[in-house]
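Methods: example folding runs. The two proteins below were folded one after another, and each record is reproduced exactly as written to the output file, sequence line first and structure-token line second.
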Amino acid sequence: VIPFKPYLKWISIAAVLLIGLMVWAPWWATLSEKYSISREMSVAERGDGGEDGLQKAAELYNAKDFTGAGKILEKAYAAAPEDAMLAYYYGLTLMETGKATAARTVLGKLYAGESVFKYDAAYGIALSYVKEKDHPKALEWLEKIPEGSTNHDKARELIGKLQ
């Protein structure tokens, strides 16, 4: 007969760790969560000291308060729809708040232009389709992301998962 008492402490620790892993479960992330856009919004490079509203929007966006950031960015975007940075982050806030169609409209205009955010917008549109489980349209947008762009590697990997 082997006494069970000395092993009880280790069995308890193992059970707590196992339960913790099951609750945390990083392997259960959806494709849209796993391949999400992780860029933080920064308005520091804009150089205008008087953009307190955009600074507040950036703080809210970076804190993942997309509803609050979206309200500020909506007004700023309405005043300056040609501003590529505003369009990009406004589109992302729309996507994060469940307004995928509106997000695709904003990001689609950005993709149609000649902006540094062009291919980031395509990736955002693709992710919006991934969230909706519309894999053919997601693949269509992922294919538009050329080699050398910011999200190219993630796009290629995601294409492999969707096919």
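Second run, written to the same file directly after the first:
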Amino acid sequence: LLVLIAAPIALRKTPDPIDRLERETNRSATPQTSESLRLDRDKAQFEALAPYLEPSDEGELSAARAKLLRAGYRSRSAVRYYFLARSGLAVGLVVFGLLLMGLSQNDPDPARLIVFCGIAGIIGYIAPGWWVKRRITQRQGEMRNGFPDALDLMLVCVEAGQSLDQSIMRVASEVREAHGALSEELQIVASEMRAGKDRSNVLREFADRSGVPDISAFVTVLVQSAAFGTSVSAALRVYAAEMRDKRLMRAEEKANVLPTKLTLGTMFFTVPPLLLILIGPSLIQVMRALTSVNNR
């Protein structure tokens, strides 16, 4: 049982970023346009079922849309798909539980049937929310890890004479292969700035969409730099150095936590087999002795 539990963890292989970069470079990828980043790029699906699939409360609807945006789902029908998946998966698992219990037992216990179907329905209802939270965590981790590199490139572009809008667009195109989520967000920022939206509002929306504290602090630095008239390159230089230090500290923190995790794993996977090997034969002999005594 322990081997079966540990096998998927041991056999899981994370993709090498260098291999992914070479694969993306060799592939003839079409440039990403602003049309692909629009929220209404697809046709609205399930328009007739919108009153039933979308929450009537405007605050709840905005919160669901913001959560899906952080997960990378930008289509108009994302909220409807999300609520449809929750209700559909809950009903589907309940029906599957009913069929499974009916096929496994000729006369199933009603209490057990209700408990089993209730647990299946709850799992189906919360599974889409868990998937979205997992996507948000992965996306935020990718943006957090790639943000120091993007700041270094942005600093080079600004010091070379480009404006902030041009540097953001250039950084978005440069980091697209290595950090796709961050590149997409930066391209949205650059497109909105070119469309004429206020820079402060665009940057604040960027911080809200990402949900990363480092990006929120960076937006605050840029807004204050523009408000007080200080140099953008100086602010970027200081903040880029700080972000590199924070990334190094996060790596050191993971390295320091690793011995504790290895100790717990070693205890979990070593002590039970050791106890079985040491105590198992004695227990078998005791059980045989007790059996012989009872037979007498």
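Comment on the second run: The chain is about 80% helix and 0% strand.
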